[in-house]
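Thread: Newbie trying to understand structure tokens

Hi all, I'm a second-year student working on a class project, and my supervisor (Dr. K.) asked me to get a predicted structure for one chain before our next meeting. I've only ever worked with sequences, so writing a 3D structure as a token string is new to me. If someone could post the tokens and maybe explain what I'm looking at, I'd be very grateful. Here's the chain:
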Amino acid sequence: MEWALDEDYRRPPRRSQESAPMPFEVRKIEFKSVNDASGLAALIDDGVFAADDVVAVIGKTEGNGGVNDYTRILADQAYRGVLVDKGTRSEADVKQIPMAWSGGCDGVITPHAVVFARVPDEQGVDVSSGSGSDEMSKRLSVGFAMSDVLLPEDIGRPAMVEKVGEGVKRAMAEAGITDVADVHYVQTKTPLLVQETIADAHSRGETVFTEDTLYSMDVSNGTTGLGVAYGLGEISEVPAADAICKDTSLYSAVASCSSGVELDRAQIVVVGNAAGARSKYRVGHSVMKDALDQDGIWNAIRSAGLDLPDRPHHTDLGDKLVGVFLKCEADASGQLRGRRQLMLDDSDVHHHRQIKGAVGGVTAATVGDSAVFVSVGALHQGPQGGGPVAAIVRVDD
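---
Reply by user tm_fold:
Sure, no problem. This is what the structure looks like when written as tokens:
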């Protein structure tokens, strides 16, 4: 896919920095087929939100999750087509809407999209009297930014960390979030390396971090995770080049980074809770310490504001949970709670697919829903062998 972004990419639509955050509508939509956008069209036709209200989409598609996973592009084209057909924005404007597609629905994961729409104030709620807690009166807000162009030689190196970090700060400001503690989820999409971009770097006398295009997916994700951590102050400075993709003690607890062939910049969506926002939703986060850590998922849901029993069950959620978003990684130690694991030695099925299917199953069983966003390549995103978890809940009827 060709991304034709002009200099206006720094100016997200429909909100000035001086205005209060508008309320957001958040809906999960299942894919009935690889390029199905009928669910999006139905929500627009039913008046849940207008096509012009949609500001971001995050979703799982059903391909192989690899470099050549074109189901991401098919989903992207379908969703953008609906927004053009049913809205007033031009095709060029719709192309600038961030849509982060993560390929691969291994195991029980159901292909789906979560749509974020900025809606008029009358569709919001009055939070002035709320629960009496200033923290709970903050509601979901979303900000978007595109980084400066990421050159092939930037991927895996400090320049990428700096460019992503700067973009995260702009996206946070766009969301009206003033405290980094109120940022609970940062979804990014960045370029990875392919033969064409590797050759381009070489033609200019530059080197690249790796010439293994599949590994470059992990490298891009990991470096972006450090960029998020730097932008939010989770790490105090840009790491040295020799720490990137090596020092796993450096990570972001809120970053969910994906990469693909679709673009040449970091596409950044910041989701947090902002004072003055009138959304019906809140977002929270935690981390899974390992692939079996259900408590990490429940802690993210509690962080979003749901009151749960000490030993929760998915039936305690009712219809309040909109979505959960996770990153995962096969533990490099080859161990899981003292038990030997074989996925890193499997020559038949890549460990990315195995850990995604495993964590997807754990998550689906925990929340009672198979439409969960689980993405692999969690280097510098959450602790080694685990990963960040974000949860969006509806807190008002």
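A couple of things are worth pointing out once you decode it. The radius of gyration is 20 Å. Confidence is low (pLDDT under 50) at residues 1-18. Feel free to ask follow-ups in this thread.
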